[in-house]
Amino acid sequence: MTPVNKGRYVGAIDQGTTSTRFMVFGRQGEIISSAQLEHRQIYPRPGWVEHDALEIWANTGKVIAAALAQARIGATHLAAVGITNQRETTVLWDRRSGNPLYNAIVWQDTRVAATVAVMERHGGQDRFRGKTGLPLATYFSALKLRWLLDEVPRARELAEAGDALFGTIDSWLLWNLTGGAQGGVHVTDVTNASRTQLMNLATLAWDETLLSAFGVPPACLPRIASSGEVYAHSRLPALAGVPIAGDLGDQQAALVGQTCLRRGDAKNTYGTGCFLLMNTGEQPVPSKAGLITTVAYQFGREKPCYALEGSIAVAGALVQWLRDRLGLIKASAEVEDLAREVTDNGDVYFVPAFSGLFAPHWQASARGVIAGLTGYANRAHLARAVLEATAYQTRDVLAAMEQDSGGVLTELRVDGGMVANELLMQFQADILDVRVVRPRVTETTVLGAAYAAGLAVGFWDNTENLRTNWAIDRTWTPQMARDRREHYYKCWKKAVTRSLDWVD
Question: Residue 221 burial (CB < 10 Å; 0-12/13-18/19+)?
Answer without folding.
Answer: buried
